[in-house]
Amino acid sequence: MATETVMLGHGSGGTMMKRIIDEVFFAAYGNDDLLKGDDAAVLPALEAGQRLAYSTDSFVVTPHFFPGGDIGRLAVCGTVNDVATSGATPLYLTCAFILEEGFPLEDLRRICASMASAAKEAGVRIVTGDTKVVNRGHGDGIFINTSGVGTLAPSINLGGAQCRPGDKVLVSGTLGDHGITIMSCREGLNFSTTLESDAAPLNHLIAAVLEAAPAVRCFRDPTRGGLASTLNELASQASVDITVEEEAVPVKSEVLGACEMLGYDVFQVANEGKMVCVVAADQAQAALEAMRRSPYGQDAAIIGEVTEARPERGPKVFLRTAFGSTRILDMLVGEQLPRIC
Amino acid sequence: MATETVMLGHGSGGTMMKRIIDEVFFAAYGNDDLLKGDDAAVLPALEAGQRLAYSTDSFVVTPHFFPGGDIGRLAVCGTVNDVATSGATPLYLTCAFILEEGFPLEDLRRICASMASAAKEAGVRIVTGDTKVVNRGHGDGIFINTSGVGTLAPSINLGGAQCRPGDKVLVSGTLGDHGITIMSCREGLNFSTTLESDAAPLNHLIAAVLEAAPAVRCFRDPTRGGLASTLNELASQASVDITVEEEAVPVKSEVLGACEMLGYDVFQVANEGKMVCVVAADQAQAALEAMRRSPYGQDAAIIGEVTEARPERGPKVFLRTAFGSTRILDMLVGEQLPRIC
């Protein structure tokens, strides 16, 4: 029997599209809002004073399936995490597919099941979606866009600009797992059979840290561009310096080995299930303990601190190495590994 | 001088990506929320009792530029219209690009300017975004996803399921302009030098109709699959029949000529700036007049009515022709013209 694949008619707006929606998307993650079938989902009113947090991300990773996850898990976790970084509770997602003619329906079903599972873990619902199909050779199997909204309590006001000298910098676990996993898959390298993408929804971890340490300045997930880009963004937003202690940064030995062999800087490698948190020094320990109580924060560590920027030059990020020397930790300039997420 | 094009590094998360964001996206449609640069936009609290309307759409149309619009105008108008169909006031959009390596930056700037202009016309703001770049040959220049949120007053409760026998069906203008324009561009046909895509934001038109005719049952924009698919969806949601008077449906003569020549059914051709509205019979005239007062509703017409479905078969849509005969107006089955939006 021929493999069922995506056809142009699945994007037509007609009966074939209705069928793929019913049999694939609704079957995986149907819910009352999605099933209404109107063009926009209508969602309940917020509680008084609550604001909206709103984010979007497209996912173009190859391969579509990799140890520890797949493009569907990434698409849900990535947007959940972006919404959660504001301190909000993510509630609703949209999901839009750009499918290439010929993409196996079996793969699409597997991806949708993975999205449903990640959404359930995060406690969010996919409430509306869209499906487009492009001709063979004009896409790459599957691209997914998710957007997400969450509600933000009036008392919470996080952001990169809130960082100030004296604050501590935490990371919720080991760096580089996602980037090195994808690279290993793609290049057929076998650094380790145990290495997996860290893709995970971190909204519950974030909520726990916020409760334990209300003096959090900001959260940021170090995805493309890695920790180095994230810290440079924060330094720039707040006009401060940040110094990281290399020895304090958790990195798996397989990841470090791969980076050394390939000439990658682990600080610039992408993560999909890690959170950077800047917090007032006196609450850093409480934040760390809250992270470590989360299943995704076992390896959390305090890795550095915020200091005043020197007026004669712009905000900088420094790395103090194990040997006591200090180097500038730059933002990634070009491209390390395309299509990492 | 070589043409500036999109490079893989523009999707890296590093300094090249920061530059394209600053110089292209912020330059076109920057605003306070977007410029904050955090991962999620934080938006003001809603008024008491207001609900959220939430929608998403990806846009893959080729060619990217066509008479009457471009992929950017479509991306803004499409999502604005989907949010507005619920009766909501669209407020905020997200915008996510999937760019192919080699795409001319000049085209991207033009598309972003067009998005800024359409957003301004609709009165919405692009508050957060995302940029991915795929390798040459794995995309098709540019794909755009937009999502949108709007606020919905407690008194409004529209939806396909609200249609009931006796209601009138309106359309806000001529059918098929967008689909035939795209097809003419793509195939190098010249049906007319005056034919243009109808891509337009219809939120102001919808608000005017709702004010004039509070007994509106639902709005729906007849995009992919055309009027035939839209009416079949409504009939199915409400378990009713719908009968359309062929002579009452506004169609431009160039569009009709093209459809006849190519064997297309104009009722299945896509529109991007038209709205179908079902309204209680005693307010149909008021709704019609409100549509006609809008710049995008000059050719609005009452085209049919809702009747009871016959119990021995499912809900159906009928077309009464100029000759007095009646045929079933079916949903599009396969694909008429791929990548129409």
UniProtKB/TrEMBL annotation, chains A, B:
Domain PurM-like N-terminal: start-end pairs:
37-151
Pfam families named in the record:
AIRS (PF00586), AIRS_C (PF02769)
Please name the InterPro entries in this protein's record. HypE (IPR011854), PurM-like_C_dom (IPR010918), PurM-like_C_sf (IPR036676), PurM-like_N (IPR016188), PurM-like_N_sf (IPR036921)
Domain PurM-like C-terminal spans what residues? Answer: 164-310
GO biological-process terms attached to the record:
protein maturation
The family annotation for this protein states: Belongs to the HypE family.
Q: Which PANTHER family match?
A: CARBAMOYL DEHYDRATASE HYPE, HYDROGENASE ISOENZYMES FORMATION PROTEIN HYPE
Query: Which NCBIfam families does the record match to this protein?
Result: hypE (TIGR02124)
User: Would you tell me the protein name for this molecule?
Assistant: Hydrogenase expression/formation protein HypE
Which organism was this protein described from? Parvibacter caecicola
What lineage, starting at the top, does this entry show? Bacteria, Bacillati, Actinomycetota, Coriobacteriia, Coriobacteriales
As recorded in Swiss-Prot or TrEMBL, the protein's gene is named hypE
